[in-house]
C-alpha cells in the first residue's frame, strides 16, 4: 500500500465512523420515541374483610408500633413489664441514635432503686427535680417516699395529661421543656437576647456559691453537651451559675463517664481539655450500675462511625450497663481559682490542649519569651519523683471513681524542656496556670490578645459543642441562624 493510499484511508475512515454513529443514534431515538408509556395505576385498597381481620387479631396497633426486639425483651425478660411500652409514643420507641439527648426509665425495680438513692439524706425542704419523667415510674416511687417539694421537666408534651391525672401534681410542678437542652436554649438566647433559659429555671431557689446546695436533680443524659453547658455557665458566671451549687444524680454511658472521669493515663481521646476543666469545677462519685435496657429508647452503636472507631471498647462495655454518678460543684473552687480568672483559665486550657503532645516550655515561651528558665530553676519542679498513691484505687484503670481533693500547689516532678501538657493532672494544670498569670509580663503578653479574640466564642459556648460529635440542628436553631444572617446583612 502506497503512502497516498494510506493517507486517503486516514481521511475517509473518520467520516465513515461518524456517519455510522449518527445513524445508530437516529435508530435508537426513533425506537425510544415510539415506545408506549405505561400509565400509572393506584394500588387497590385492602378489602374491608382484611381490615376487620387485622383489627380482631391478637397483635394490637400499639404492639405493631413497638420495635420487635424491644417488645420481645420486655415480654420475655423476668422483671420487665411489657404494658409499660404502651405508655410511650411510637416516635420515642423507634429512636436509637448515639446522639439522643433524652431517655426514659421503663422498669419499676430500677425506679425503686434510684428513688432510694435520691431520697437518701434528702432534707424535707430541699427541691428535687426530675428531668423527663415520661410515664412517671420514678415519680411514683418518689411520692411514695414522701417527697413533696418536687418539680418535673418533661420534653414531650404527650406525657403531660397522664402525669397530671395520675399523680394530682400541684400547680407549676410539671413544666414542658427540654431541660437537658439548656445549652440549645442558651444558644438561641444569644441570637435574639431571649429569656428561654431564665424561663426554664424560674422558681428554682437561688443561693450563694459557698452555701449549701440549693436543689437535687435526676436526669439521664446521652451526650456531653449538657455537662459542657454547666461548665460554661461557671466560666461565664451566668445562667445556671446563678442558682448556686446543686446536686446532680445522672445516669450516663461508660463512654460519657470516661470523658469526665479519665486520668492522664487514659490517652488523648478521653483525657481532653474539657476533662481537666470538669474535674476542677466539679466533684463526681461513681454510685453503681443500672441496666441500659431499662431506659428507652435503646441506643445502638451503628449510627456514628467516628465514635465506633475511636471508642469501640467503651461502647461495647456499655451495651448492657450504664453508670449512676453523683456530681456536685466544688465548694472551695474559688479558694484555688479566683472568679475573675475563670475565663483566663478556660482559654489557657483551650490554647494548650489542642494537642496533648504540646511541650510546656516552648508553648509558654510563645507568650512570654525566656520564661522557661523560671520553671526549670524553680525548686518546686526540680525535686525527685516520689511515689504517689493511685487515685483510682486500682478498680478501673485510667478512670476516677471518686474525685480527689482540689489543690493548686501540685507541681510536676522532674520538670524539663520535654515535658508535655498531656503529662499534667488537672491540679498540676491549675498550679501551672496560677504561676503563669502571676508573672509580671503576663498582662502585656500576646496571650491576653488571644483571650480577647476568643471571648465572643466563649460567651457563645454552644458553637463549639460539636467538636467531638455532630448532631442535626433543630428547626428553631436553623431559623435563628437565618435571622441572624439576615440582620447582619
From TrEMBL:
Annotated spans, Disordered: 36-60, 453-489
GO CC annotations on file: mitochondrial matrix
EC number: 2.1.1.-
EC category name: transferase
Pfam family, one: RrnaAD
Keywords for the protein's UniProt record, in alphabetical order: Methyltransferase, Mitochondrion, RNA-binding, rRNA processing, S-adenosyl-L-methionine, Transcription, Transcription regulation, Transferase, Transit peptide
One annotated GO biological process: transcription initiation at mitochondrial promoter
Biased composition (Acidic residues): 466-475
Residues bound to S-adenosyl-L-methionine: 105, 154, 178
Keyword Transferase: yes
Compositional bias ranges of the Basic and acidic residues kind: 476-489
InterPro entries from the UniProt entry: KsgA/Erm, SAM-dependent_MTases_sf
SUPFAM superfamilies cross-referenced by the UniProt entry: S-adenosyl-L-methionine-dependent methyltransferases (SSF53335)
Protein's UniProt keywords contain Isomerase: no
Family to which this protein belongs: Belongs to the class I-like SAM-binding methyltransferase superfamily. rRNA adenine N(6)-methyltransferase family.
Name of the protein described by the UniProt record: rRNA adenine N(6)-methyltransferase
Amino acid at each position: 500500500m502506497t503512502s497516498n493510499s494510506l493517507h486517503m484511508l486516514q481521511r475517509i475512515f473518520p467520516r465513515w465512523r461518524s456517519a455510522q454513529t449518527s445513524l445508530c443514534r437516529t435508530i435508537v431515538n426513533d425506537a425510544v420515541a415510539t415506545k408506549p408509556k405505561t400509565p400509572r395505576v393506584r394500588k387497590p385498597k385492602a378489602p374491608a374483610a382484611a381490615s376487620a381481620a387485622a383489627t380482631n387479631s391478637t397483635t394490637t396497633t400499639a404492639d405493631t408500633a413497638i420495635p420487635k426486639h424491644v417488645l420481645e425483651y420486655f415480654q420475655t425478660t423476668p422483671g420487665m413489664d411489657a404494658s409499660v411500652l404502651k405508655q410511650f409514643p411510637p416516635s420515642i420507641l423507634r429512636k436509637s441514635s448515639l446522639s439522643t439527648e433524652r431517655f426514659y426509665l421503663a422498669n419499676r425495680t430500677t425506679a425503686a432503686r434510684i428513688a432510694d438513692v435520691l431520697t437518701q439524706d434528702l432534707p424535707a425542704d430541699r427541691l428535687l427535680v426530675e428531668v423527663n419523667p415520661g410515664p412517671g415510674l420514678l415519680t411514683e416511687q418518689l411520692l411514695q417516699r414522701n417527697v413533696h417539694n418536687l418539680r418535673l421537666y418533661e420534653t414531650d408534651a404527650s406525657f403531660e395529661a397522664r402525669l397530671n391525672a395520675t399523680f394530682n401534681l400541684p400547680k407549676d410542678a410539671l413544666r414542658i421543656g427540654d431541660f437537658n437542652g439548656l445549652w440549645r436554649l442558651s444558644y438561641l438566647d444569644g441570637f435574639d437576647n431571649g429569656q428561654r433559659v431564665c424561663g426554664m429555671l424560674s422558681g428554682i431557689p437561688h443561693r450563694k456559691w459557698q452555701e449549701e446546695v440549693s436543689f437535687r436533680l435526676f436526669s439521664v443524659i446521652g451526650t456531653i453537651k449538657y455537662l459542657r453547658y454547666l461548665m460554661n455557665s461557671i466560666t461565664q458566671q451566668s445562667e445556671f451559675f446563678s442558682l448556686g451549687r446543686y446536686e446532680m444524680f445522672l445516669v450516663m454511658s461508660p463512654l460519657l463517664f470516661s470523658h469526665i472521669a479519665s486520668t492522664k493515663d487514659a490517652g488523648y481521646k478521653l483525657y481532653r481539655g474539657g476533662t481537666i476543666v470538669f474535674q476542677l469545677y466539679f466533684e463526681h462519685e461513681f454510685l453503681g450500675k443500672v441496666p441500659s435496657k431499662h431506659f428507652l429508647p435503646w441506643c445502638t452503636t451503628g449510627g456514628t462511625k467516628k465514635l465506633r472507631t475511636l471508642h469501640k471498647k467503651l461502647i461495647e462495655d456499655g451495651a448492657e450497663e450504664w453508670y449512676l454518678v453523683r456530681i456536685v460543684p466544688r465548694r472551695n473552687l474559688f479558694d484555688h481559682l479566683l472568679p475573675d480568672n475563670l475565663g483566663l483559665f478556660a482559654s489557657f486550657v483551650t490554647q494548650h490542649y489542642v494537642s496533648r503532645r504540646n511541650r510546656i516550655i516552648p508553648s509558654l515561651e510563645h507568650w512570654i519569651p525566656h520564661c522557661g528558665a523560671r520553671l526549670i530553676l524553680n525548686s518546686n519542679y526540680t525535686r525527685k519523683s516520689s511515689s504517689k498513691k493511685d487515685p483510682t484505687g486500682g478498680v478501673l484503670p485510667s478512670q476516677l471513681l471518686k474525685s480527689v481533693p482540689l489543690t493548686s500547689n501540685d507541681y510536676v516532678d522532674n520538670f524539663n524542656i520535654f515535658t508535655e501538657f498531656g503529662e499534667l493532672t488537672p491540679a498540676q494544670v491549675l498550679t501551672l496556670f496560677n504561676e503563669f498569670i502571676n508573672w509580671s509580663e503576663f498582662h502585656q503578653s500576646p496571650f491576653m490578645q488571644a483571650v480577647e479574640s476568643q471571648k465572643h466564642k466563649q460567651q457563645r459556648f454552644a458553637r463549639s459543642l460539636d467538636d467531638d460529635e455532630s448532631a442535626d440542628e433543630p428547626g428553631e436553631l436553623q431559623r435563628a441562624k437565618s435571622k441572624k444572617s439576615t440582620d447582619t446583612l
